[in-house]
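Preliminary data (for renewal application), zinc ion complex.
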Amino acid sequence: MQDEPIDPFNGDPSDPAAGLEDLGDDAEDEPLTEAERQDVLEDLSDLEIYQALLSPTGIRGLVIECEDCHEPHYFDWDLLRGNLRHLLSSGRPRVHEPAYDPDPDHYVTWEYARGYADGVHDTLTEGTDDE
Ligand SMILES: [Zn+2]
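Predicted structure:
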């Protein structure tokens, strides 16, 4: 005849804090203009190309000079893509969260990536005139 003590930590897995998701619907946010959306979409597709070309050479992402802190930030491909998608959906950039403890040797600038992609493109088109 012993009552089981009630364990307050037992049973219910629902955490009341779990519902505290940031819905992010700040009414004052302005959506991106159509031109801005296009820019982001172009960046996204460029990113696909750069990643496909550069990751086999050991490049893990891009380094971007930060306008806020004037320091280079290193972004992995996935992080970059996530940031751009976030920008598309929310209309504002995510607070920068650069890669952790990056090795600068594994990151290149947008300009480098663009030049590299152009070079590869030229090489490929040169090789296709075998009609
Ligand atoms: Zn910064």
